[in-house]
Amino acid sequence: NLKVLITIIYLIAILILTFLPYYQAQQAVGRRSYGTIRDMSPRLNSYLSIAQESLFYKFYPKKIQVANDNLPMKNEHLLFIGFSVYLLFIISLISFIILNKKSQKKDKWPPIFIISLSTYLILTLISIIIPFTSYTFWINIYNFIPGAGAIRAVTRIWLISYLFLFLAITILASKVYQKTTSNILKMVLVILGIMACLEQINLKPPYFDKLTEQVIQKQIENSISEQLQNNEVDAFYLRWTDDDTYSDRAYYDYQIKAMWASLHLNIPTANGYSGQSPPGYQAMKYVLSNSQLRGWLMIEERALSKKILILDLNIKNDNLIINKTEIIKIGEPTE
């Protein structure tokens, strides 16, 4: 009974620690509508959807290739991990059962296998929209667990669930490999293991020139640091020109660079990039004027930042151009 009690307390503690950041995010940016969350909840088709850049994409059945055509936010539903993974699991499962029946010494199911597989099944069951219905258990989590309303991309639960699935398959396949005397079965397991890895290969992953971006990032941070040496400020805001004549970067590029600068220099920023803007904040693709910035910072006592450093800059052809810097005080008359 004591072990059960300790386990329950341990699980509750993990649950609290897991949802605490989401609760804090929900307090800051508000609760998302369930319609938005539902669009990014996995369906059966999600587990049949794969990216066109996959190594074996052309060899998959047409149904796999077009599985996500009618799904909202289709790029979020690419959850198919390949036939080899499931085939390896099925063969390992059947082989373990048969070998156990033939063996005089019966092996128990590996505890880590049971825990890992159970965790995968539970995570999948609570997040998926039940086939042939419109119901998902996630709506109960959304309604009753504090902070769950801040979670938008429910499909990304695969980042956790597949980890447990791969662990379960690896443990079971290893157990069968050690137990069997059949070289053919061993060869099948090895080949399927290799194929399972190959099916995860993406031929055209997203790419950017890391060195170029690091140089630009460093220049931005140096500019902020120079201003901090001579001025006492509480936060900064990175402003860009929303005009193709002066800039060839997307708005989120500037927002993300400001976020990195904030982390590296340990100074708050009024910039940010997320799936949802905080209350009172203009859409992130728009640049805030001084008056708009003052107005937002004064909402809900966010005016703890009294002096704000403004960096007016642009990036064009991978070159950083700093137009001007200024410091504004919150509460002063707007321009």
What is the H-and-E element order?
HHHHHHHHHEHHEE
Whole-angstrom Rg: 26 Å
Q: Uncertain regions: pLDDT < 50 for 5+ in a row? A: none
The number of strands is: 3
Helix content: 40-55%
Tell me what portion of residues adopts beta-strand conformation.
5-15%
Mean pLDDT: 87
Biggest sheet record: 3 strands, mixed
Side by side, the strands of the main sheet go: 1-2-3
Number of discrete helical segments: 11
| Mass-distribution shape | elongated
Question: Distance between termini?
Answer: 68 Å
- Oligomeric status of the shown chains? single chain
Give me the secondary-structure category: mainly alpha
Task: Characterise the protein shown here.
This protein is mainly α and 335 residues long. The protein contains 11 helices and 3 strands. A hairpin with a 2-residue loop joins β2 and β3 (319-329). The chain is elongated, with a radius of gyration of 26 Å.
Question: What are its keywords?
Answer:
mainly alpha, 49% helix
Write the layout of secondary structure elements.
Elements: H1 2-29, H2 34-39, H3 62-65, H4 83-102, H5 111-127, H6 138-144, H7 158-179, H8 183-198, H9 210-230, E1 235-239, H10 251-265, H11 290-297, E2 307-316, E3 319-329
Parallel strand pairs: 1-2
Antiparallel strand pairs: 2-3
